[in-house]
Amino acid sequence: MLVTTNSNITWKQVADENQKSVKLLARISIGLFVLALVSGAYAYSAHLRYDNLCASTEGQSGAADGEAAQESGDTVSGAHCT
Asked: What is the pLDDT of residue 27?
């Protein structure tokens, strides 16, 4: 009877430790998933802002009066914008 009781207590302790580990890993996984979503949203918004900057640069260089200004705008657009 004593062996059965100790065995049950031991298995209960092991099960509790496993459950705590699972909860911790689940929390870490959720945290990493949220971090990935935030990083993706930031990258997407940065890409949109960069596109707006390129469009503005191309529009202003096309509307510029001087040839040097147009050439400079084309150089910047060609080097940094696709």
From this structure: 98
